[in-house]
Every structure is written in C-alpha cells, then in structure tokens.
Amino acid sequence: ALLSPQHKPLAGKRAIVTSGPTHEPIDPVRYIANRSSGKQGHAIAAALARLGAEVTLVSGPVTIADPRGVTVRHVETAEEMRAAVLSCLPADIAVMVAAVADWRVVGTAGQKIKKQPGEPPAPLVLTENPDILKTIGHHEQRPTLVIGFAAETENVEANGRKKLAAKGADLIVANDVSPDTGIMGGDRNRVRLISHGGIEDWPELGKDAVAERLAALIAERLNQGKS
Ligand code: CTP
Ligand code: CA
Fold first, then answer.
1. Which three-class secondary structure state does DSSP give residue 94?
2. What is the pLDDT of residue 226?
3. What cofactor does its activity depend on (predicted)?
4. CA 166 to ligand 1: nearest atom
5. Which one, of 20, 19, 18, 22, lies nearest residue 105 by Cα?
6. Is the beta carbon of 211 within 6 A of some atom in ligand 1?
7. Which of helix, strand or coil describes residue 125?
8. Ligand 1 contact via 151 beta carbon (within 6 Å)
9. Whole-prediction pTM value?
10. What CATH superfamily classification does 5-102+124-224 receive?
C-alpha cells in the first residue's frame, strides 16, 4: 500500500532544490556569506523525494548530512550554484531555498591577505551575484512550479509580494527572520505563503513539518494545474 501511486503523487516529476548559504571568497581563507543552516532546504528536498519526485539538491556549504533519496550537488559560490541549477533543466519543480550571497568580491586574492600592523586592508570591491530564482522564473525552460523563499526582517508581506512579481515565481514562502523571532538557525519555522491567489499563514511548525506541508501543496498544485 505504501508504494501505491496515491502515496507517490510526484512520481515521474523532476525537482531542483537549492539550500544553504553560498560562500564568496575574499582570499583562500576568508569569505562572505549569509547565515543559513540548510535545514529547511534539505528537509524540502527529502519531503519531495518521499512523494516520489526525482530530486536534485544543489547545496552550498552546510554542516548537516545529505538527505536520503536525493541527488546532491555540493557547490560553494552563487555562480557555481547557478550553473548547477541550470544544468538540471528541464524540471517540473524548482524550490529555491538557498540564502545566496547577493554580492561577490571583485579581484579575489590568490594568496592570504596578510595583516599589516596598524594598516587596514584595502576596502573590498563587490559586484552583484546572478539571481538564480529570477533566472529560473523567466527561463525558456521554466519549470511548471517555481517557488522562492523570502527571508525578511520587516514588511514581510509587502517585500514578499514584490519578490513574487520580480522573480516570476508562482509562490513565495516568506518568513520573518528578525533576531527576536529566534527562527534563524533553529529547527522551527513560521511561514507565510504568498501567491497570486492570496496569502496563507501557517502556524509555527518544525522545519520538517513545513517541508512536508509544502511538498503536499506542490503535489496538489501540479496535479490539478496552477491556481
Ligand atoms: N535568490 C537567488 N539568487 C540570488 C538571490 C536570491 O536564487 N542571487 C533567491 C533565494 O534563494 C530566495 C529568493 O531569491 O528564494 C529571495 O531571496 P532574498 O535574499 O530574500 O531576496 P533578494 O531578491 O536577494 O532581495 P534582498 O536580499 O535585498 O531582500
Ligand atoms: Ca538576498
């Protein structure tokens, strides 16, 4: 009974999930990164696989284990993540959970930058990284369902709506990551789903439960057409 199609509603569907941070090198020993444990993205990849999807997880550097039943591509930088994601097209589902660094360093040093006593180093010059979600949302091989996350510290709904439109996504999973929520790095999450059809607030749940509900919603939408 466990293997009946009813329990594998995503059988035959291909999914791409990004997770974790990216690391943008300054020199061989230093980098710029966002805070991200990878827990939510990894849980989503695993939940999609449990529903029968063929999942590739493109993960930045994390300390957690690779999830079961999923193909994992390990990358460091946003540019590597973008290339890995594009190489997975065509796909039916894209869930971009990674906390991609918005900028990378121009002129990365080939050798460790040495401390000169009393003299600060030259300021870092930054350039914008490619927006992977936006690329996928507007791609000619756009997956049927494109889902992004939005980590916000304020104006969660307004910022989430802007991202939905700008990135060509079907759904934005927004969460408030301001320090007083205690969400960042933990095992729980409280999300607000923003789609063209409206807004849905989910209660605070474990990240595995959020993943399970999101995977179920993805299966429902894919099997009945978008709404
Ligand atoms: N994202 C991405 N590539 C980037 C930046 C973001 O794929 N270079 C994706 C994230 O994985 C997430 C969504 O875009 O699904 C929103 O990321 P977020 O950092 O919240 O939004 P930004 O567009 O980068 O805007 P800002 O950081 O200024 O809020
Ligand atoms: Ca960002």
1. strand
2. 43
3. FMN; Mg(2+)
4. 23
5. 22
6. no
7. coil
8. yes
9. 0.95
10. CoaB-like (3.40.50.10300)
Beta strands in the chain (DSSP E): 14-19, 24-27, 30-32, 54-59, 71-74, 93-96, 103-105, 126-128, 145-152, 171-176, 188-189, 191-195, 198-201, 205-206
Q: Which position has the higher pLDDT, 70 or 109? A: 70
> Nearest 5°: CA angle at 86, between 14 and 72?
60
Q: 196 is written with which tokens?
A: 């063209």
* 176 in a labelled binding site: no
Distances (CA, A) of 23 to 5, 17, 32, 77: 40, 18, 6, 5
* 2 known ligand binder: no
Q: What is the ipTM of this complex?
A: 0.99
Band of residue 167 on the pLDDT scale cut at 50, 70, 90? very high
Confirm or reject: Cβ of 193 under 6 Å from ligand 1: no
> What gap in Å lies between CA 50 and CA 80, rounded to an integer?
27
Query: Could you list the active site residues?
Result: 34
Residue bearing tokens 């969400």: 183
